[in-house]
Structures are given as structure tokens and as C-alpha cells.
User: Fold this.
Amino acid sequence: MEMENQLVELCLNSACESKDSVEKWRRQKRSLERLPSHLADALLRRLHARRLLYPSLLEVVKYTIEVVDLSGENAVDSEWMAYIGAFRYLRSLNISNCHRLSSSGIWAVAGMTTLRELNISRCLKVTDAGIRHLLSIPTLEKLCIAETGITARGVTLLSSLKTLMFLDLGGLPVTDQALSSLQVLTKLHHLDLWGSKISSSGSDVLQMFPKLNFLNIAWTNVTKFPNLPHLECLNMSNCIIDSTLKGPGDNVPLKKLIASGATFSNETEDLGFVGTSFLYHLDFSNASLHRFGFLTHMKALEYLDLSSTTIGDNSIELLASVGENLKNLNLSCTTVSSSGVGILAGKVPKLETLSLSHTMIDDVALSYISTMPSLKSIDLSETDIKGYIHLSAAEGSEFLSLTKLRTLDCLEMLNLEHTHVDDGSLRPLSKFPRLSHLLIRSPSFTDVSLSYLSILPKLKTFSIRDAVLTNQAFDFLKPAATLQRIDLRGCWLLTEDGLLEFHRRFPQIEVRHELFHFLSDPTSSNRPSTHLTPKKLRLNQRNRSTVTSPYFVDQRLKYSREELLALQFSSLAQSSTYTPETSHKSDS
Amino acid sequence: MKKEDTVKLISAEGFEFVIHKDAAMVSQTIRNMLTSPGNFAESQHREVTFPEISTPILEKICQYFYWHLQFASGKETEFPIEPELTLELMMAANYLHT
Assistant:
């Protein structure tokens, strides 16, 4: 895909390189009007990412643009909106988190006949007056107005937007009355009402939206479980669930149920009203539950979060019986012990992520965990794991229990923070070639443990907090070329000079410590590339760490050869930003 | 360069560019035209006309084809694009799937 459109990519980079390059093409009106909309959209996105966009530049793509995403752009105000309102074929507009935007700014999009999707969530200044401007958009299908200044009155007005299918009213003071006025929106299939003022008695109205397949009523006073025939995803986090609403079917064909922090009554605890055959995502973290019998029939479960619930070893058997498809299991902050983990041994062939932090498990559990062949990520923080097992037969001889995990071929992440593991018992880790994230935290680690930085060939993140490390240990350290981030918080013996020296030698590595925080390459974050070729991109993704966007700035393009030569000697920290390849080579 | 190994690309103004077949094949669109079964004029005469692409843009495209081949074989150089050409070139590149 990327290879296929490489020239388009090169053109975008060249077009959006600087203010001057924009000036060179912005008057080519005939070309701009012929631009296919997906190219116009890409051009606008790139201009926005390069921070080259200003209101009157919006004018040039007036006849071609279909999708505009300016979310989080603080500059957006009525002037920007005036230009956006003139877009002839605008289909989707995202201006969420634009804090300067007010109701009068919304006036510009009033009457647009092509607009189908509008997101003004978290534009705090938009009020009921803004909603009135929207009522003249006859084609609106998706509307997000979460956490704006709109009141229940404004929500009532939405009832005239008959084409609405997707409505996000999160965080708005929607009342029972306002909700019932929305009954006329018969096409609605996605409704977000978290944090609204819907009362328990008003929740009967929810039955009047038969087409809903997504409903979020988290943090409301609703106590009745809605029984809708097409509901697939339901969020009732932090609700008290004490009964169900009468619906056409016996149970709700849910795929995803999130009831984090919810309280269940004796009657609802067995979840008899939930169709279990399709349910693959269940989040009951922090929920107040006493029986877990409902698990028995949930054969499709892939994601299960039971953290901070009352589940204990005696209910694990139920879990094991539905473990066949499980990929993600969270049992942290429960009373599950090593013998509970033993019940799961061999029953969860597809499990990839397992969290047992804040439980009482000890080293015995490690041998059970080693029977879960697909595990990629294990969280064992705040447990009783020591890393040693004393062999009773021969007094004094010890077995390093982490050796057991060596059978896990896919293991990428291991969290051992706040356990009793120390330098010695961590030794088996040197035989974990695929490990890319390792987290340890305890004062019993010393300079010896830093050696994993060079031993583990794929290590990307290494967190060694509260350890007794010295500056000298860093002097001869050669971290793996893949390393992106090292967390040294709480290592009180390290000095600023020592860390600076490390940063100077490995500027591509992000270092965290109380004394300072080095991002690996601050100039590149959130700024796209001026030169993006697939091969180069791959190289740089290996070396760099902070960049979450796929873009980076190749600083070589910003400067002429002479300027570069001058810069080379100005500061070493600077030079690293435009010679990542060479610095990488000299490191390895 | 043997005649069988070349392809002729004709711009909107009628300007002809004769380039190596391998270079032209960098474009997915041209590849499809030249390799599609049946007796299309394009595959018979090894000639493709682009009534939508002007001469300077088609010249740039041809340069790009050769640059791409070099790049793919490991020669990492920059391909400079004048900002004035970006819009038209982008459209041509989009059409040619290159």
C-alpha cells in the first residue's frame, strides 16, 4: 500500500514542506479544483499536522474536500468556521476539543446539505443556541456533542433531526423528559448517555429505541437492565443493577458488556437476562458480585476483567471451563492464589495477556503459568514471588523459579515490580530472547541487573525503579539497539551528570528520572516527515522512541549542506537529531 | 535497449517518451495495461497515451520510474519535487498507482 503510493507521499511532503512551498501551489486553482477528494483530504491533514494551516488557506480546497478533522486545534474559531461552512461537498467535520469555538461559530455550518457527521464534543462554549443552527442540516446521521455546554432543552431540540443514527450525549444533563422526546429518532442505533440525569423510573424509555446496538448509561441512576433485541454493546459502569426491563426477547444478545464498578443485586447476579453465546468482552472490574456462576455458559469469551472483585480460588473452576477462547484475563487485586492459577493450567491455550498483580500468588504459580503457551504479557507485580524455590529434599539447594517461564516462546512483556525478586533470582531472564518490555522495582537490585540491557536482544522498554544503581555502571553499558525507553525513577544514587553522560552517548533513548526527563528526540514528536520513504521509515522506527505518529522530521532536508556542517559542531545533542543512522551504527 | 524492451508513453500534447519496460512497470496502472490478456492496443503497440497528463508532468513521472528502480536496488538518493509540480504530479501518481 505504502509502496504503491510512494510518489503521492513524496508529493505531499514536498507540497507541505514549508510556508514557501505552500505559496508555490496555492494559486493553482484549476488543479486544486480537479484534485480527487481523498487527495484533498490527505493534503489538508498534512497541512494541519505540519501546522501550516490558516483560515484563508482552507479556501483553496473548497470544492474538493469531504472530510475535515481539526480536533484539538485551539486556533479554530468563527473565522475558520466561515471558511469551512463554504465547503461544497463536506461530509464529515470533526472539531472536537476546539475550545475557542462558540455557538455563533456553529452558525457557519447551518444549512449544509452534504454534512453527515459532526463532532463538537468538548467544545465547552457551544450551548443550546449552537444546537439551533444544526437543526437546518437535514442529512446529519452522526452527531457527537458530549461534554459541551448544552442543556436538556438543547437535547430536546435534536428530535427534529430524524436522520440521526449515531448520537453521543455523554456528560450532558439529559433528563427523562429530554430522552423521551428523542423517541422519534427511530433510526438511532448508537446512543451514549453516560453521566446523564436519567432516573431509574425514566429508564423505561430506553425500551423505545428498538434499533439500538450500542448503549452507554455508565454513571447514571438507571437500575434496570435494558432488554433490547439488537443490543450488542452495553456499558453500565458504576450503576446499581437490581432488575431488568421487560423486552421482546428472553435475553439480550450482547457481545460486549462493561459493568465496571457496578453493583448487582441478588436477583441480577446470575445474569440470566444476558444471551451468552456471543459475549466476547466482559468487564466486571471493581463490580460488587458474589457469585460467578454466570461464567459457565460464556464459551465465546475472549476478554475478561474480574479485577478487584470477590473472585477466589473456588470460582476459578468456572473460569477454566470457559477458558478455551480467552485472550486477555485480568485477575489483579483478587484473592486468587497459586492453587487457583493451577486450576487454569492447560485450560487457556489462547491466553495472551494475564494480570495477577496484587494477588497472593507465589513462585509455585510460575510453573502453572508456563503451561499457557500463547502468553505475551504477564503482570506479576505486587505479589509474593521470590524467584527462588527451596527444594525440600536437599536442604539449602535452590531452584530459580523464573526458569519455568522459559517455555513461553511468545513472551514479550514481564512485570515483576514490587516482588521479592533480586539480582540473583532474575538470572534466568537472560535466556528470554523475545522479551521486549521488562519492569522491575525494588531496592534489592544493583548494577548487576543493568546487564539485561545488553543481554536481551529485543528489549524496548526497561524499567528498573528504586534500585541501587551507580553512575559507574552506565559508563561501559551498551544497551541493545532496540532499546527505546529506560525508567530509572527512584534510583537515588544516580546524579544528573551521570545521566547526562548516558544521554549524550545514547540520545535516541528516552530516559526517565526525577532529576530530569529526556525525550529521545523532542523535535520529531508530532511533526511529520519531510522525506518519507518506506525503507528509511523502517530504519527510523527502530531507532526512535517517542514518535507515536508514523511521521518524523528528517532534519537533513531543512538545512542546506553548509548549514548542516556548521550545526554538526554546535552541539552534540542537536546533531543527534539529524544523524540517527550514523549514531546508531556507531553504537552497535 | 532492444525495441521489445521499451514502452512509449505519450503526453497530452503528443510528446513521446520511450522508456524501459521495467521502469514503466513501476506504475501498477501501466503494468495492468501492458500485461492484461486480450489484444488491447496498448499491449500490442507498446504505446500508452495519457490525454490527462501534460508533458512536464509525464517527464517527471518517467524520472521517478527510474529513480524508483534505483532506490529499490539499494541506491538511496532523494527524489526532488518542485512544489509547483506537486498538485498535478500527485494526481498523475494517483492515477498511475505509483
